[in-house]
Amino acid sequence: MTRVLLSLAILAVFALCLYGMWHGWRARARRQAETLPAFPRPPAEPGTAKLETTGVYVGTTIGDDWQDRVAVGDIGHRADATLKLTDNGVLVERTGATAMWIPLEDVEGARTARGLAGKVMTADGLLVVRWQLDGQTFDTGFRGDDKDVYEQWVQALGGKE
């Protein structure tokens, strides 16, 4: 009987932790929805693809804080994705989530990084696109299946590796 009660107590503590994490994520999303600008929608015709690679969309963070993940809508959700550089911007087509659009005039550059939004890898394991929207700076991270293309992306977007 003691083991059953102990097991139930541990299960209750675990459930309470899950509820706290879920509640914290929703509170972060509410706060950010009030202060962050609306993210641009992909255009009907994004333009001709210059570069394209597959991998995982890691997330988008605010400014220089590599841990401050954007939680508004489904922007904070990791997903398999295809990253495309077009004539007009960067398109992130995510599986099971809405596509993300970064207009080319908003892109400040790109770089490789070790970590972003709680995802830490080996050196230069992520491609990070820095961009601005209404005066707010964002970093969008992508872990490509082929990391050899990162240099092409960094050069095309005018960043530093």
Radius of gyration: 18 Å
- Tell me the helix content: 25-40%
Tell me the β content.
35-45%
Mean pLDDT: 88
At the fourth CATH level, what is the homologous superfamily of the largest domain?
Pleckstrin-homology domain (PH domain)/Phosphotyrosine-binding domain (PTB)
Give the terminus-to-terminus CA distance: 60 Å
* CATH topology label of the largest domain: PH-domain like
Strand order of the largest sheet: 4-3-2-1-9-8-5
Number of domains: 2
Would you count the extended β strands for me?
A: 9
Largest sheet: 7 strands, antiparallel
What does this structure look like?
- The protein has 161 residues and is of the alpha+beta class.
- It has 2 domains: 35 residues; 108 residues, Pleckstrin-homology domain (PH domain)/Phosphotyrosine-binding domain (PTB) (PH-domain like, Roll), CATH 2.30.29.
- The chain contains 2 helices and 9 strands; from the N terminus they run H-E-E-E-E-E-E-E-E-E-H.
- It has a 7-stranded antiparallel beta sheet, covered by helices on one side. A two-stranded antiparallel sheet has the order 6-7.
- The longest helix has 34 residues.
- The chain is elongated.
- The mean pLDDT is 88.
How are the secondary structure elements laid out?
Elements: H1 2-35, E1 49-62, E2 79-86, E3 89-94, E4 100-103, E5 107-113, E6 115-116, E7 119-120, E8 126-133, E9 136-144, H2 150-156
Task: Please supply descriptive tags for the structure shown above.
single chain, PH-domain like, 2 domains, seven-stranded antiparallel beta sheet, 25% helix
Précis, in short:
The protein is of the alpha+beta class and 161 residues long.
